[in-house]
Design brief:
The chain is mainly beta. The chain has a domain at 231-308 and 345-397 and 434-495 and 535-610. It contains eight helices and 53 strands. It has a 32-stranded mixed beta sheet that branches. It has a five-stranded mixed beta sheet with strand order 1-6-7-4-5. It has a four-stranded antiparallel beta sheet with strand order 47-48-51-52, with no helix packed on it. It is globular.
Length: 983
């Protein structure tokens, strides 16, 4: 569909499905008047009621009406829950953490069944999801009727979570008293992309007059063309190289810079460079004065501007059929489909000379530095350079994620006291990236390049001139297959896909022993499958014939790109992807005949991709799990000393059986390198998980809750698979660890909740989690049998299970403590005089503390104590709303403090993380008629930057910066206007 400003104007009368229409809820009766509460306030009331009635510690978000969820995105809705913080990708919530624990420790269930949805993303924001974390941006929020976040475990809950279990529920026909329908159409405009988009939803539910059967259908369809812009560094690195001839070296005189100037570039003083052949030759002691200062300092590896365009389409469909053939029998069939397309074009203008990692490589060192400033943190904050290689990098991704799920549930009454529930479900998620291609233009030995990071969010770059030309002219650039001056130009092709699925069957029996005790028991089998595949070219350097052909008439294969920099606009030339693909046919997965022309090389162009080339093997993995669970739980409801007490206690036993498969590289024998072997490893373990939850109404409307349980979370798939290399002669192994056991722990929760009335809640919660184990990568000595590999692999070399090996892999390490508190306040301001009594507010705050010992090197005992990865020590959310019968308005702010999410990301950095964020959204709706609502909405009013950093603490070089800039991109503000009709 063509989208333009005219299209947006045509959609101005349309509305978004957010907080506008009316919901039937139990009547409230302040004073003597009966008031029917609707809209957002009704959603809050319903959520509070569900939270209060639960036997465990939960938080709930309910839809405001049929097909009308309070937020556009599921994760953005959940951030209103205490302890929940979200991470955004391209401006939209993608993943969550709960009480400091990331998606690896959180399970997500759809209509009662564990599921996994996966998408792709930019490399700096996590790339393609190849693990257990759930990507919430796959689904439209309008498809759901409720979200429940269970923070305390019970025996009847499936295992696998240290943080929380998220239950997503879609509507069913018996949720409504009869026929119900709603539809909305919304127009959207983003002030950065300058593009208009649309969003439509439709929902229909009906049931028979005799209430024996019902059918429900819900559809949500939208587009969202987005733009992301900003600078990045690709991390920082010492000007003194950390490798010499490919051999690790803590200190070396293979320097990144050739010379320096103290007179503004008029004359240059050489920095001594000795071509090293081993790691023991030379040290920083060879240098002194400014040569030493420059070589010890940090500089950005790839200082650059980035312009990323997204073309997003999302389609979601849910359906449910319910049937009551006889009294006491209910059959429910739930169907769900989602298709999420997020094609992406990334354009970068970058200096690549500073990222070269070997002092003996061609083109390094050749760069000269002048007009430089080294700050107190040991960083070259700004400088000018000669002989710098500049690159225009263009990446095109075609991305599609599809999700399908089908559940069948039988609820059967067995007399007056017993009920049987039988459940069978199957889901699958497929993430496809058939086109992931990077093309580059290159310019070698540019004079007068400079960068200035005085303002880390808005650095200033000057790309100098080459051949008298600037970056927006074809004469500045070339496409080179030669390494004579530096890195050759690229044709990087990396198609990939990720598939996963669940197949679940459970049987649960509930029996009321008496009026105070209910016995619950059940069994279940859950099968999880995972497969990820990636193929690459044997060489990603552009073939000589192709490069010569394109250079012969370069102006036909380039196009201009412009982006905002905070100081104006930057225009440069980028590869014309479509024109180059048409000319080279690089997407054929074949060997292409030489392109012809005067003076062109006659060699063929090999564009054959394979998943067995060394650089691709690590992303080709399979995993399967079978989880067999059994539980017994006793629910109780008594009055002790005049205090109503309810809760549950029980035990869950689960056996996990895993099989993981990946490529294992073998060393060369007699000068011949054998092909990699696709190795499968298996293991199993059993967990006993007791739990106890107690709720007492210690005062009228005041609940005191306590919960404790043993919990477990299975290892990441990347750490489990045996991807790596083994040397049977040297008895060494480096790779994954298929024998990893889960991360286990014990949790304690204490909550005090005061429900003054249907609109009010004040709660304080304390939580304590003893993570008894963690998983980190380290070097150690163990036996061949500990690797979990096939014994036949070592038999020919005389290796058995007891043979000692030097191993570098992931291992279970001591964990740490997580503790914190939550405060939640919700109140309608009915104590104020009219019209201010229509105001209300929701406020929550969470503080978390956690210290773990991190191993900073797999070959060194050095550790550092820091926060749990992914954990923000502080998070808060506040909503102020105003609501009358026909008018509703609210503004919401969400805050998340600084956190780290990667340990040892490279380039000498200890951690990579993200700085604090504050996102502000607003919405106004007005009922034009009892059935028609107009809504206006604004998202990301602060145009919050996704500001990521690297942390360095290097005494050898004097680099101390806990906030060195990494990425700083923004996506602009989005505005919505539309209509919603309810029948």
């Amino acid at each position: 569909m063509k989208r333009s400003k005219q299209h947006l104007l045509a959609l101005l009368p349309l509305a978004i499905s957010q907080a506008y229409a009316q919901t039937s809820t139990p009547p409230a009766a302040p004073e003597s008047n009966t008031v029917v509460v609707t809209g957002y306030r009704a959603s809050l009331q319903s959520s509070l009621a569900a939270k209060r009635e639960s036997d465990t510690i939960v938080d709930v978000i309910k839809a405001e009406d049929i097909g009308k969820f309070p937020d556009n995105n599921l994760s953005e809705a959940m951030q209103r829950i205490p302890g929940v913080a979200i991470d955004r990708d391209a401006g939209e919530g993608r993943t969550i953490t709960v009480r400091g624990l990331s998606g690896l420790f959180v399970r997500t269930k759809l209509n009662g069944m564990e599921a996994l949805a996966t998408t792709g993303g930019r490399d700096s924001s996590g790339g393609a999801n190849r693990d257990r974390g759930f990507d919430y941006n796959v689904f439209a929020a309008e498809l759901f009727s409720a979200i429940k976040v269970s923070k305390a475990a019970s025996a009847e809950q499936e295992e696998g979570s240290l943080g929380a279990t998220i239950d997503l529920t879609t509507p069913r026909p018996f949720d409504y008293p009869g026929f119900a329908a709603a539809a909305s159409v919304t127009g959207q405009y983003n002030d950065l992309s300058k593009k208009a988009n649309r969003r439509e939803t439709f929902m229909l539910s009906t049931r028979s007059d005799d209430k024996r059967w019902g059918v429900m259908l819900s559809v949500a369809d939208s587009t969202n063309d987005k733009l992301e812009e900003g600078p990045s560094t690709g991390r920082w690195e010492n000007a003194s190289l950390s490798t010499v001839a490919g051999v690790p070296s803590a200190q070396s005189t293979g320097m990144r810079f050739k010379s320096y100037s103290t007179d503004g570039g008029l004359s240059f003083i050489p920095i001594p460079f000795l071509a090293k052949t081993n790691a023991n030759a030379g040290s920083l002691a060879d240098l002194s004065g400014e040569a030493l200062n420059i070589s010890k300092a940090l500089h950005p590896r790839i200082p650059r501007y980035g312009h990323i365009e997204y073309d997003v389409k999302r389609l979601g469909i849910t359906s449910a059929v319910q049937f009551k053939p006889v009294q006491g029998t209910l059959l429910t069939l739930d169907l769900m489909h989602s298709n999420y397309v997020a094609n992406r074009n990334e354009q970068y203008l970058e200096a690549i000379s500073f990222s070269r990692g070997d002092g003996n490589a061609v083109g390094n060192p050749s760069t000269s530095i002048y007009n430089y400033m080294i700050n107190s943190k040991g960083e070259i904050q700004k400088a000018s350079f000669n002989n710098v290689d500049i690159r225009s990098e263009s990446r095109h991704d075609e991305l599609e994620s599809s999700f399908n799920q089908m559940n069948l549930t039988l609820n059967q009454k067995l007399g007056d006291r017993a009920e049987l529930r039988l459940f069978a479900g199957k889901s699958n998620s497929a993430q496809r990236n058939p086109e992931q291609t990077t093309l580059t233009l290159d310019a070698y030995d540019v004079q007068g390049y400079s960068y200035d990071y005085s303002n880390p969010l808005k650095p200033v770059f000057n790309y100098g001139k080459l051949n008298g030309c600037t970056v927006d002219q074809a004469c500045y650039w070339q496409i080179s297959s030669s390494a004579a001056k530096g890195d050759p130009s690229l044709v990087r092709i990396r198609p990939n896909r990720t598939d996963n699925g669940f197949n679940t069957q459970t049987a649960d029996l509930s029996y009321e022993l008496n009026d105070h005790l209910t016995l619950k028991t059940g069994v279940g089998i859950k099968r999880f499958s995972f497969k990820t595949v990636e193929a690459r070219l044997a060489s990603e350097n552009i073939p000589a014939n192709a490069a010569a052909f394109l250079n012969a008439n370069l102006s036909n294969y380039v196009m201009p790109q412009t982006m905002g920099t905070g100081y104006g606009a930057q225009t440069w030339l980028i590869p014309n992807f479509n024109a180059i693909k048409s000319a080279l046919n690089f997407g054929c997965n074949c060997v292409v005949s030489p392109l012809t022309g005067s003076g062109l090389p006659t060699t063929s162009n090999d564009f054959t991709v394979s998943n067995t080339v060394s650089s691709a093997r690590g992303n080709n993995q399979d995993a399967s799990e079978k989880d067999s669970g059994y539980y017994a739980q006793l629910d109780f409801n008594y009055e002790l000393f005049g205090i109503p007490v309810r809760g549950n206690t029980g035990m869950r036993i689960v056996k996990t059986e895993q099989a993981t498969t990946a490529y294992l590289s073998l060393p060369a024998k007699n000068g011949v390198t054998p092909p990699p072997t696709y190795q499968t490893a298996t293991q199993s373990y059993t967990d006993h998980l007791p739990s106890l939850n107690i709720t007492g109404e210690v005062l009228k409307n005041v609940l005191l809750r306590f919960g404790t349980s043993k919990v477990m979370s299975r290892p990441s798939l990347q750490a489990l698979t045996p991807a790596g290399s083994i040397d049977l002669d040297k008895r060494t192994y480096s790779g994954g660890n298929p024998t990893l056991e889960p991360i286990r722990g014990t949790t304690y929760d204490l909550n005090l909740e005061w429900y003054k009335d249907k609109d009010s809640l004040f709660s304080v919660g304390y939580f304590f989690k003893n993570m008894k184990s963690y998983i980190q990568r380290t070097a150690h000595t163990d036996t061949f049998g500990s690797l979990g590999l096939d014994p036949a692999l070592g038999a020919a070399s005389g290796i058995d299970a007891s043979t000692p090996f030097s191993i570098t892999n992931w291992v279970n390490t001591p964990g740490g403590l997580i503790r914190g508190f939550e405060v939640n306040l919700q109140k309608n301001f009915d104590f104020l005089p009219a019209p201010f009594n229509n105001f209300g507010g929701v406020l929550n705050f969470t503080k978390v503390e956690s210290k773990l010992k991190y191993i900073l090197s797999p070959t060194s005992p050095t550790v550092t104590v820091a926060d749990l990865l992914g954990m923000s020590p502080k998070s808060a959310n506040a909503t102020l709303y105003y609501e009358t019968k026909d008018f509703s308005a609210r503004i919401t702010g969400a805050y998340r403090s600084k956190y780290t999410y990667i340990l040892l990301p490279g380039s000498g950095s200890d951690f990579q993380g993200k700085n604090a964020t504050t996102n502000v959204d607003a919405q106004i709706s007005y009922n034009l008629t009892p059935k028609l609502t107009l809504t206006v909405q604004a998202l990301n009013l602060t145009d919050q930057y996704d500001d990521r950093f690297n942390a360095y603490n290097n005494a050898t070089f004097g680099n101390y910066d806990g906030n060195a800039p990494s990425d700083a991109v923004h996506t602009g503000r989005s505005y919505y206007i539309g209509l919603r009709y309810k029948y």
